[in-house]
Amino acid sequence: MTDASGPQRIIIGCDHAAYQLKETLKTAMQAQGIPVTDVGTYSEASMDYPDTGKTVAEKVSSGEYERGILICGTGLGMSMVANKYPHVRAALCNDLFSATMSRRHNNANILVMGGRVIGDILALEILSTWLKTAFEAGRHQRRLDKFDSI
Ligand code: RB5
């Protein structure tokens, strides 16, 4: 799912609406030897997405984790929470093109998906693409520097 230069410190979080998808993604990463820290939620019992979104976003913002994955029903709430944090570039990607470009042009460090929007197979493909696609830097770094300074 990732090459030798792929991210080594990955953290994943979800809400109840995406619990099953989170388990699927985590199992797939573990099967491929990709280390992943799961910060919940741990069941389909209703909970509030900002609680796990905050945990993942804080740890990516601080640099403790290189990449994060956040999933909820639509992906919208998790995106909104995560992008409040400095140095977080959370990208809602429910298609493969967005997943590729979020890495190549935006250097996204949190992948967000909607568990009620896409199926498991597409989500696995999006994750795989997102983990292995490199940032192109150059003019894109200049653009990231500009919005980092806002
Ligand atoms: C939960 O019902 C739902 O609102 C949540 O998973 C997410 O879609 C929020 O943006």
Distance between the amino and carboxyl termini: 34 Å
Write down how many β-strands occur, each being a DSSP E stretch of 2 or more residues. Answer: 5
CATH architecture: 3-Layer(aba) Sandwich
CATH domain topology: Ribose 5-phosphate Isomerase B, Chain: A
What is the 3D form? Answer: globular
SSE-based structural type: alpha/beta
Strand percentage lies at 5-15%
> Radius of gyration, Cα only, in angstroms?
14 Å
Give the names of the bound compounds. Answer: D-ribose
Q: If you had to describe this structure to a student in words, what would you say it looks like?
A:
The structure is a single chain. Helices cover 43% and strands 15% of the residues. It is α/β, with parallel strands linked by helices and 150 residues long. The chain has one domain (10-148): Sugar-phosphate isomerase, RpiB/LacA/LacB (Ribose 5-phosphate Isomerase B, Chain: A, 3-Layer(aba) Sandwich), CATH 3.40.1400.10. The termini are far apart. 35% of the residues are buried. The model has no long low-confidence stretch (mean pLDDT 95). Residues 15, 17, 49, 72-74, 76-77 line the site of D-ribose.
Produce the secondary structure layout.
Blueprint: E1 10-14, H1 19-31, E2 36-38, H2 49-61, E3 67-72, H3 76-82, E4 90-92, H4 96-104, E5 110-114, H5 120-132, H6 139-148
Parallel strand pairs: 1-2, 1-3, 3-5, 4-5
Bound molecules: D-ribose (RB5).
